[in-house]
Design a protein that fits this description.
Helix content is 47%, strand content 14%. By secondary structure, the chain is an alpha/beta fold. It is globular and about 65 Å long.
């Protein structure tokens, strides 16, 4: 064990009281964080088992990707039993929907040698699949020591993350090098992963291209939009800090001369369009509602609508989970959350699959290749600021011919790459078969 790895093990061990305190704080707003806390440290109430196929999906986005892979994997391995681990409350709640009889869901073990060892001995998985970026030094080392093949699926690594990994090369290189297989999203991701010693076994694309929007939600959103009689513009999956910038942009926005300037002077947000915001994290719903009111706008929350149409207000707040298809169906144009702060952008593929064109900010490194392709195909545009994004979304919404062309481009972009889940599931099934052959 290297000196840096030893220091890392000490830091994670000493950090256990900090983790418990953090979970207690998060649990005030999200009680799910207070459930089964001891699972984080490798102590379980579930009976010991063996033979699981283990999938780790840290949060909501990774759990959505895992669901796509899991459906294809169950077709190839119909008798499989799933061991699902998550790291966040939203991931755990969404992951519960994936469970079948005989499956188990627990929290991701905190990355100490002891917690990892107890986790692996208790559940004895046949193999493990980590989703996207979740490479933890002790978790990977523990799997290697226990003979558990470990794959990184739908793998991505941004240039920024590579630079961070290179600064801690004594930790990162052994961890990436000890993986059994890596299935990358893009060639650029593959190159960066290989530079850390990762065994890239395939470049399959992004699983999220295989996701099908909820048809009933999409239809409901479109029906509500048609009844509105004016365009709906959406700030989608916004992150902390972006809503405040967006509200200031709405205050500064002045529509073109053909719009009623008297109305615009009183309330520019109501100038011919309806604005909707859906924050990325549910614990922030109340805070975003308060921000909207503090900015001088009225707000109507999805949680008060029931099955009826949205209630009148300057701004609608999408304060629900699992309804992005509804919101994208409701919207004519979406501003991509996470791309206006330095956070790498959220999933623009989901918007495109719903036929919703996207305005992106400057920071899309989480979906770099998809963002570039969407821009080339005319399904998205990149701007430098939220001021520019508000103006661009407004311009598209007020130009029916341009908007219709972008809707077609978005749908074509989303459907161009499919079959990724089948290819990835085939690789996973082959890895599982090789384990069976050895045993």
């Amino acid at each position: 064990m290297s000196l840096l790895r030893g220091l890392y093990c000490l830091a994670t061990w000493l950090g256990q009281p900090w983790l418990r305190a953090k979970l207690a704080r998060r649990g005030v707003a999200e009680p799910c964080y207070l459930q089964a806390v001891d699972e984080r440290f490798g102590r379980y109430t579930q009976p010991p088992g063996s033979g699981y196929i283990w999938i780790h999906a840290v949060s909501l986005g990774e759990t959505h990707a895992a669901a796509i892979l899991l459906a294809a994997l169950r077709e190839r391995l119909p008798g499989m039993r799933l061991l699902l681990t998550n790291g966040t409350a939203t991931g755990r709640v969404e992951g519960q929907k994936l469970l079948r009889e005989g499956d188990v869901q627990v929290w991701q073990p905190w990355d100490t040698p002891g917690a990892v060892r107890r986790f692996l001995r208790h559940f004895q998985p046949t193999m493990g699949i980590l989703m996207e970026t979740e490479v933890w030094p002790n978790l990977v080392a523990g799997c290697r020591a226990h003979g558990v093949p470990l794959a990184l699926a739908n793998a991505r690594l941004s240039a920024k993350s590579l630079r961070q990994a290179e600064r801690l090369a004594a930790l990162a290189r052994p961890a990436y090098g000890a993986l059994t297989a890596v299935w990358a999203q893009t060639e650029a991701d593959a190159e960066r992963l290989r530079s850390l010693g990762a065994p890239v076994a395939g470049v399959f694309g992004n699983l999220k291209f295989d996701a099908a929007p909820d048809a009933a939600q999409l239809a409901q959103g479109r029906a509500w939009r048609a009844a509105m009689g004016r365009p709906v513009l959406l700030l989608a999956s916004s992150r902390e800090g972006e809503e405040a910038m967006w509200l200031e942009s709405l205050k500064r926005f002045r529509p073109p001369a053909q719009v009623d300037q008297a109305l615009a002077a009183i309330n520019p947000v109501a100038s011919g369009v309806q604005w909707l915001v859906v924050p990325r994290h549910p614990q922030r719903f109340d805070a975003v509602a308060a921000l909207i009111r503090q900015a001088g706008f009225s707000v109507s929350r999805r949680s008060t609508w029931g099955d009826g149409p949205p209630q009148p207000a300057d701004i609608w707040l999408g304060d629900s989970l699992g309804e992005m298809a509804l919101y994208y169906g409701l919207a004519d144009v979406a501003l991509l959350g996470g791309s206006f702060a330095r956070l790498g952008g959220q999933n623009l593929i989901e918007a495109a699959a719903c036929g919703c064109p996207v305005v992106m900010g400057p920071h899309t490194f989480n979906f770099a290749e998809a963002a570039q392709r969407a821009q080339r195909l005319g399904a998205a545009a990149r701007v430098a600021s939220l001021d520019a994004a508000v103006a661009q979304a407004y311009a598209w919404a007020m130009n029916p011919q341009r908007h219709e062309a972008m809707v077609r481009a978005a749908s074509e972009f989303a459907s161009a790459q499919q079959g990724i889940a089948d290819r990835m599931a085939a690789a996973a099934a082959l890895l599982a078969a090789s384990v069976g052959a050895r045993t």
